[in-house]
Model the fold of this input.
Amino acid sequence: MSASLRTLIHGIAVSAIFATSASYAQAPAPAAMAGVRGTIVSVAADKLVVKSNRGGEQAIALDKDTRVAAISLANINDIKPGSYIGAAGIPQPDGSQKALEVHVFPPAMAGTGDGHRPFDLAPNSTMTNGTVGDVVASNGRTLTLKYKDGEKKIVVPDDVPIVNIEAGESSMLVAGAKVVVRARKNPDGSLTAASVSVGRNGVTPPM
Done:
C-alpha cells in the first residue's frame, strides 16, 4: 500500500470518528420530567388545568402520546407471587425499602417501568417496579420484588395505600377528578403530559 493511500485512509477514519463524536454530542438530551399532583379544574381537547396540591394552577398540554391510567383501591391480599407491582419507598439501612405506597398492575401491563430508580414522592424516595417473588406476612408485610437488574426487599407498613393501576380513558379526565400527572418539561417552560393517573370513583391517587 502506498504512503499516500495510507494517509488518505487514516484521514477518512479520523474524520469518521470526529463525525460520530459530534453526532453524539449534538443528540438531544432526554426531556426532564415533572410531577403535578392535584385536582382537575378544567379540561379541553388538548389541555388540562390542574389545581396543584402545592398551591396555584398549572396548565398542562395533552397530545396523542398522553397515556391515561385509572386508579382504584386494592388490598395487600391481592398481591401474590408473580404479581407485577410498583412500590415507592424510602431506602433503609439494611438495604430494604420501606414502602410509601404500592401500585398493583394488571397482567396486561406487566413490565411497565421495570427497574429501580429515584422518585419525587418524598426526599430520597425511590420507585421499584417488578415481579413479586416471596411474600412474607410475619414481622410486617414484606415482599421480594424482582426486576431486570436485581431485586429489592419491600416492607409494606399497615397504613400504606395500595391501589390498582389499569388502562384508563380520556373520558375520565373531568373537572373535580384527582390526578397525578407525569409531564415533560418543554424548552419554553411549558409542560406536556406523558401520563395522567386519575382516581376512579373519587379515589385520590397516592402517587
Helices lie at 3-26.
